[in-house]
Write a structure and sequence with these properties.
By secondary structure, the protein is an alpha/beta fold. It folds into two domains: 158 residues, Pathogenesis-related Protein p14a, CATH 3.40.33; 162 residues, no CATH class. Helix content is 35%, strand content 14%. It has eleven helices and eight strands. Strands 1, 2, 3, 4, 5, 6, 7 and 8 form an eight-stranded mixed β-sheet that branches. Helix 4 crosses helix 5.
């Protein structure tokens, strides 16, 4: 691993990796498609490794994601992997140290495993950071390029600008082209629509467990509590609402059986969402099996309850005989679920 001193802190660079590939030489340029779901998958894998090693999860930072997106696009255009020339000149202020992993491989799990098998990349994944930004793009031949930027905020995590605080919206200017426009408008009218900035909802972004906790606490007007249920959300803008939904019995932790972590930055899965809603609404779980793909899910009873209630309609229209419990949800989709459940 190389270290170089930037103007505002230490810049850590892990050697670039090509994950388990025979096809390491790719013609350039290559058209590529960005994948926010893949990005969330990588963040979930990284935070899972950190949780397994007793480390707090990393908070998603949208400015870092924008920086990572630029670097990934450059790699795709050249058909090879290489690092950002000087992160210290790219990333905005408020940090004390930075790190970067880049890779190219057939899919996100393979890339993650390759990173964990490489000492330099593993050190970055398990490093002393507070925030993360990920951007992956899949090229026309199916190869995935990825950039992961790690950041430690200067001082406390609250000093990083901008953080992932999501303001409640009085209107949203980015919903005209989404099928969830009416659902988002309903959230806005209820005062529980959390924006990605002061006037945008970002309906296509994945929703996190922290965002779900806040929207649920606001929608149900849950009382606050002085009990701190989890150790990995200190300083988070969602902390009070996470504790509120835990106090109400709506959520448990993400690291059973201890359940001392909440993993607020992990992308919410459809199975987890079902359990959130069933506990919140007190739905009966002694109902017939609704879907054919959830028999191995710990959320099966809640999934069936949610399906029987009509709040969910499955993941494979028009048949809708599958639920996809490990699938992720966008912010637009969660708006629709909240509206069906609470209106």
């Amino acid at each position: 691993m190389k270290f170089s001193l930037g103007r505002r802190g230490i810049y850590l660079v892990a050697v670039a990796v090509t994950a388990f590939l025979a096809l390491s030489l790719i013609p350039a340029p290559l058209p590529a498609v960005a994948s926010p779901i893949q990005d969330s998958d990588m963040i979930d894998l990284i935070n899972g490794e950190r949780a397994a090693n007793g480390l707090p999860g990393l908070t998603r930072h949208w400015d870092l994601e924008d920086d990572a997106s630029v670097q990934t696009a450059r790699q795709v255009a050249k058909g090879t992997i290489f690092h950002t020339s000087d992160l210290s000149k790219i990333v905005s202020g408020g940090w004390s140290s930075l790190g970067e992993n880049v890779g190219m491989g057939p899919n996100i799990p393979v890339l993650h495993n390759a990173f964990m098998d490489s000492p330099g990349h593993r050190a970055n994944i398990l490093g002393d950071w507070s925030h993360i930004g990920v951007s992956s793009k899949t090229a026309s031949n199916g190869q995935t390029f990825i950039t992961v930027i790690f950041m430690k905020a200067r001082g406390s995590a609250a000093d990083a600008e901008p953080l992932t605080y999501l303001p409640r919206l009085s209107s949203a200017n980015d919903t005209s082209n989404t099928v969830f426009a009416d659902d988002i408008a309903w959230l806005v009218s209820r005062g529980v629509a959390l924006g990605c900035d002061s006037d945008s909802y970002c309906p296509n972004r994945p929703v996190t467990r922290g965002e779900m906790a806040t929207m649920m606490a606001l929608a149900l007007n849950l009382p606050s509590t002085g009990t701190d249920f989890f150790t990995d959300d200190d300083g988070s803008p969602h902390e009070a609402n996470i504790n509120a939904v835990a106090q109400a019995g709506i959520t448990v932790g993400c690291n059973p059986p201890a359940n001392t972590f909440f993993c607020e930055q992990q992308t919410l899965t459809r199975g987890q969402m079902a359990s959130f809603f069933v506990r919140a609404l007190g739905l009966p779980t002694n109902v017939p099996d609704q879907f054919g793909d959830d028999s191995n899910s710990v959320h099966q009873g809640d999934i069936n309850a949610l399906g029987a209630s009509g709040i969910t309609r499955g993941c494979n229209p028009p048949d809708n005989d599958r639920y996809c419990p490990e699938g992720t949800l966008t912010r637009g989709q969660i708006a629709a679920f909240l509206r069906r459940a609470l209106s």
